[in-house]
């Protein structure tokens, strides 16, 4: 009888181990800086609050983004960076969900989050990729210096994430980027600023400076006509249906 009981226990443990899994989204989750996002973590079994440990962390297991164990949040162990910003949806534990809600998303949140679940002697984890984006300020393009053979233009913007690229085009649609010089800087909060210089000939009437990432794009056009220098600014969010919002000043 004892051998039979041990065999049954072993079989039950094996069944539990084999069926217990933790999974997350197969694709990266995207969020805009300043918004909130839910990182979904799903277990294959229903979870009892008093019998589960859920640990969300970044690079260090012992410095959790959020830790739930012994039926309550363990906030004293939480990474200070995520205090009052990270919350576990405990009301859905019985459905197997261990999802994390992150508010006031920062560019420093960009990267991998690990959802680690320890339940009834079994533990599994899932890695979730968070991609943070930030649309920078409207570009400012202006004449930096008058030259004998033309003018030097400067296009600049800040508040981007990830680091953007700058593309220059003339009124004929020709790509002038190879003859430009761009400088990208990162500030203390992780945002990027960019400035790009280019020299053009007087025969160029209109030039366009485009600053873009994979998800966002902004542009400024400068038109030189006699004594008038006119600038128009357009914004495009590539992640949604493309839509230009433009303004003009001189």
Automatic annotation (TrEMBL):
It holds the Pfam family C2-set_3. It is found in: Membrane. Keywords: Immunoglobulin domain, Membrane, Signal, Transmembrane, Transmembrane helix. InterPro entries: BTN3A2-like_Ig-C (IPR053896), Ig-like_dom (IPR007110), Ig-like_dom_sf (IPR036179), Ig-like_fold (IPR013783), Ig_sub (IPR003599), Ig_V-set (IPR013106), IgSF_BTN/MOG (IPR050504). GO terms for biological process: regulation of cytokine production; T cell receptor signaling pathway. Signal peptide: none annotated. Gene3D superfamilies: Immunoglobulins. The keyword Signal applies. Its main location: membrane. PROSITE patterns: IG_LIKE (PS50835). One of its GO terms (molecular function) is signaling receptor binding. One of its GO terms (cellular component) is external side of plasma membrane. Residues 1-133, 139-225 form the Ig-like domain. The chain crosses the membrane at residues 6-22. This is Ig-like domain-containing protein.
């Amino acid at each position: 009888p004892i051998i039979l009981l041990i065999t049954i226990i072993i079989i039950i443990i094996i069944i539990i181990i084999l069926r217990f899994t933790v999974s997350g989204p197969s694709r990266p989750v995207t969020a805009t800086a300043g918004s909130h996002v839910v990182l979904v973590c799903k277990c294959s079994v229903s979870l009892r609050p008093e019998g589960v440990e859920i640990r969300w962390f970044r690079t260090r297991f012992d410095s959790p983004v959020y830790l739930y164990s012994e039926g309550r949040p363990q906030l004293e162990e939480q990474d200070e960076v995520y205090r009052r910003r990270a919350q576990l949806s405990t009301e859905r534990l019985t459905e197997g969900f261990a999802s994390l809600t992150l508010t006031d998303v920062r560019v420093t949140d960009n990267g991998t989050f690990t959802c680690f679940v320890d339940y009834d002697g079994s533990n599994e984890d899932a890695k979730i990729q968070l991609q943070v984006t930030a649309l920078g300020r409207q570009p400012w393009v202006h004449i930096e210096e008058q030259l004998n053979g033309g003018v030097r233009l400067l296009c600049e913007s800040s508040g981007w994430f990830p680091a953007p690229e700058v593309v220059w085009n003339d009124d004929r649609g020709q790509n002038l980027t190879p003859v430009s010089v761009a400088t990208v800087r990162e500030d203390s909060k992780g945002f990027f600023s960019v400035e790009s210089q280019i020299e053009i000939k007087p025969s160029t009437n209109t030039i366009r400076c485009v600053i873009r990432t994979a998800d966002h794009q902004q542009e400024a056009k400068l038109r030189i006509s006699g004594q008038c220098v006119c600038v128009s600014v357009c914004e495009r969010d590539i992640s949604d249906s493309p839509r230009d919002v433009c303004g003009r000043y001189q």
